[in-house]
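Example A, followed by Example B.
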Amino acid sequence: MDKLIEKLDKYIIFFVLYTLSFILFFKFIKYALPFFLAFIFSLILKGPTEYIIKKFKFKKGFASLITTLAFFAIIITSIWLMTTSLSREAIQLAKNSQHYFSDSANDIYKFIESLKVYYNNLDPSIITSLESNLTSYLSKASNLTVTITSKIIQIMVSFLAYIPYAFMLILFTLLSTYFFTKDFTSTRDKVMNSIIPDKSNKFYTIMNESKRMLSNYALSYLLVILLSFIETFAGFLFLKVRYALTLSIIAAIFDILPILGIGGIYIPLALLNIFIFKNYYIGFGVLIWYVVVTIIRQIVEPKIVSSSLGVHPVSILASIYIGLKVAGIKGMFFCIFLNIFLKVLKEVKVL
């Protein structure tokens, strides 16, 4: 009984400390964002920098400068190209969405009339309800399309006001990344030695295990989201769907949201092309591709995430689902990291 109470006390203490740390992290991250990003980037650039030093016999400072500048050039160019393409497509989609729905009003009503053959025997009140609900849904779909694209445009425009801040953020992040990358090993060793002189200390083991699992999780989940985006974008390009980039990004965002998922883009897009625009090639192509992407996602995500963490797939899925249901995106991260740290502490025999 005493052992059970002692174990329960450890879990309660861990949960309280973890919750406080999680809240404080998200509360103060905005003040330390450049340095947090720089630390993450330096972890990514550590390998390439060491490779350049060994391969070309460059000094550490020069090798760090090369990898940092190349890394930021790739990121900034990618963001710029994606932003310009996305804003162009979003503006076109916002202009044309209402036009599509208004021009297709007759086709929509003809479609409703054609369905009467199948539901004529139903109660008139049910028929009226079905027709009004379908019309309402189409109206909402039109308004939602305009709202989403308008929000994207507003974000693009409002971003202009943040250019000075964005420039300062990029500059501080770039400089910090360079110095972190150049002095990563020596700085890390000095800090760790000052905090934990004895490397056999359990806290040192916990830190190493936490770093390994967190970095594995971040990379694996980014890989899953990137995979969904690439699959959607490639499929839409092959099917010649208009606004492929915009719709792929929205689908990737929907993919991490509760209930909606990528079906929030695929299904309406397929139905519109089949029943309204009479473009059966795109409509059925999108439906088939939706099934393919969904199957791949269901197979790949748990395996990638769980294998990188050493956590059971059901545990990860439960963390994602419960977190999203309780508190949205933050809740999802809270539950996932809770799962990860519990695994870490069990691995090092703390819990």
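Example B, a separate protein, is given below in the same form.
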Amino acid sequence: MDIAALSMGMSQMQVAQQASVSVMKMAMETGTEQMTDMMAMVETSTPVATTAGPSPDPNIGQLLDISV
């Protein structure tokens, strides 16, 4: 058994694993940033009429006529 070759192979595996973990951390950080930005956009957007109070005409949206 060649100890030098085994040592090099194990070292290469460790480097590859560290690289994949680093890429995964970057992806997680990007996802967190996107979620934070989306939450900020939702908070600053105009509220929906149903949550902000009564609509201008309370009869709008009460019935839906469908014929098939």
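On Example B: The two ends are 79 Å apart (CA to CA).
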